[in-house]
Design a protein that fits this description.
This is Tetratricopeptide repeat protein 38. The chain has about 450 residues and is mainly α. The protein folds into 4 domains: about 1-140, Serine Threonine Protein Phosphatase 5, Tetratricopeptide repeat (Alpha Horseshoe); about 150-260, Tetratricopeptide repeat domain (Serine Threonine Protein Phosphatase 5, Tetratricopeptide repeat, Alpha Horseshoe); about 265-405, Serine Threonine Protein Phosphatase 5, Tetratricopeptide repeat (Alpha Horseshoe), CATH 1.25.40; about 410-445. The chain is about 70% helix and about 0% strand. The protein contains 24 helices and 2 strands. It has helices at about 15-30, 35-45, 50-65, 70-80, 90-100, 105-120, 125-135, 140-150, 160-175, 180-190, 195-210, 210-220, 225, 235-245, 250-260, 270-285, 290-305, 310-320, 325-340, 345-365, 370-380, 390-405, 410-425, 430-445, and strands spanning about 5, 10. The protein has a two-stranded antiparallel sheet. Strand 1 (about 5) and strand 2 (about 10) form a beta hairpin. The longest helix is centred in the last third of the chain and has 21 residues, at about 345-365.
Length: about 450
Amino acid sequence: MAHTDSRHLQVSSGNSRSMERFESALELLQGYYGDPLTMIDETLAEDPEFVMGHALRAGMLITAGDGAVAPLLRQTVEAAEALHGIANERERRHIAAARAWLDGEFARANQMYGDIVIDYPRDALALQVAHITDFLLGQSSMLRDRIAQVLPNWNARVPGFSHVLGMHAFGLEETHLYEQAEERGRFALELDPRDPWAIHAVAHVMEMQGRPDQGIGWLQSRTEDWATDNMMAVHNWWHLALFHLELGHADQVLALYDERIRAARSAVALDVIDASAMLWRLQLRGIDVGSRWAELADTCEARGAEGTYAFNDVHAGLAYLGDDRPASFARLMANMRRAAAGTGTNAAMTREVGLPVIEALYAFEACDYDHAIELLMPVRLIAHRFGGSHAQRDILNLTLIEAALRGDRANLACALAAERMELKPMTPSLSTLVQRASTLYRESAEAAGRTPAARAA
C-alpha cells in the first residue's frame, strides 16, 4: 500500500511517527522557525531508513548556503544513497540533486530540484530548495518564474500555501515588479502573519523603492511576528538598520548592530554576511565603527570554508580589510584563486565576480581608487552571477560611487549619483552623495579654469 504525505505525494516510509515529525520539521523550515534540523535528526535516529527525512536534512543544509556544513551534508547524502533500494523515484531524485550540490555542481543541483518541482509541483521541499538555490546562484527571474510554474497547483487548502506566496513575492521584487510583489506579500501574510520571508519580501520592496520611513514602520509594527525564534530575524533586523542608515540615523544603526545583528555573535553565513555588509556601509559614510570589525574577523577566521562560495568569501574579505588583517586577507585570496582554477559552479562564480570584487575592495582600501573603479565598473553588471539580492549587491554600487568621490573622478561621481537619483527618491543619504558629487564637479571645473555646468544638482 502506498503511503502519502499531506500534499498527496508518495513516500517510501510507512512509519506514521516519522511522517508526522517530517511534516512538522518541513513546516518549521518553510517558516524559518525553531530548530527543524534537530527535529529531523531525532527522527532519523529512531528511523534511519526514513529516506525523505534524509532528503529534508540535505535540503536544510543546502539552503544554508554555507560550505562549513559540507561534512554534515556528505554524511546525509551517503546515508541516503545507501537506501537507494527502498527509495521511490522522487526520493532518489532528491538525493541525486543533493549529491550534485555536495560535489560542487550547484547549477546542476538547482536544475535537478527544479525538475522535481515540474513533475511534482506540490513538493514543498524541492520547491523551497530550488527557490533558495536560485537565490544563491543569482537567478532572479527564476525566483519569480519557478514559483509561477506551480501556483495553479496550490491553494489555501494545501499546507504551506502562504509560504509559496511569500517566495513568489520575493521573486517579483527581485525582478522589479514592486507593486505586484507587495500585494502578493501582504496576501501571504493574511494567511500566515508570522511568515518572515513574506515580511522580508515587502521590506525589500520598500528598500528598492526608497521608502525608508515606511520600511521602519512596516518592520517595527510586525516585530512580534518575525523577531522571535526564527532564522530570518537577524536579516530582518539588518533591513531595519538599512532603513535607518538611509535616513542618517547612525546611532540607531550601531545600536541595532550591537543589540540585534551581532548580539549572539552568530557564525551562521547569512548573519556574518549581514554584519560585514553593514559595517562596510557605515565606514563608507565615514562613521566610526570602533572595534566591531575584530569580533567579526575572528568569527570569519573560525568559520573556515573559504573558497567554497564566492559571495561568502567577499564578505569575509570585508571583515579582514576592516580589521586590517593582511595575512588573513592573503590566505582568503589564495583560497579564492585556488577555487577559481578548479571546476564546478563556484569556480566560475569566483572567476567572473568574486575575484574582481575582492581585488576592487582591496584597491579601495589601499586608496587606489582608479583601480577599484576599473574593476567595479564592469563587474557590477554581472554581479548577480554570484548570488545575493539587489539590496545586498548594492554595496558594490555604493563602493564605486565612494571611489569616484575620493578619487576626484568628478564626472563619474556625478553620473553615478544621477543614475541613483533615477532609481530612488531623494533621502538624506542620497542627498549627501549628490551634494558631494556636485561640489567635487564644481571644484574640479574651477580648478581647470572652466565655468561649471550643472551636474547632479
